[in-house]
Amino acid sequence: MDDLQDFLAQPNVAVLATVDHKGRPHAAPVWYLYEDGVFIISTGRGSQKHKNLEGNPNATLVIERRDIPYYAVMAHGTVEVGPAFSNEQRLRLATRYLGDELGKAYAARTQAFDENVSIRVTPRKLIEYNGRAGR
Description:
4 helices
């Protein structure tokens, strides 16, 4: 379990999968914060992800390592849509993925941008893939 938690704490780009009102799947790469067992994502208000989750709060988040040994975690869960990230959350997210200097510059450029919502994915189930198929 420690390895899983360590992996989820790393700045891996994830893919968020949702379903629209017609049953069509949609998947998009996202950055995330992982806090207390919950994945927290920022997205534009009215984006396809946001619209899909307002209609169907079920989602899957896939976090993967593409280097050998391959490893992935699929988090199936329910979503709460909430307010935009605070400036502090935006800075933490940006520096997590871009490093200190680029992250601070990115957060400063996007500080006034509040046309976002937060997405909190609370996993019901975590499935690990350890690079072995056919099990």
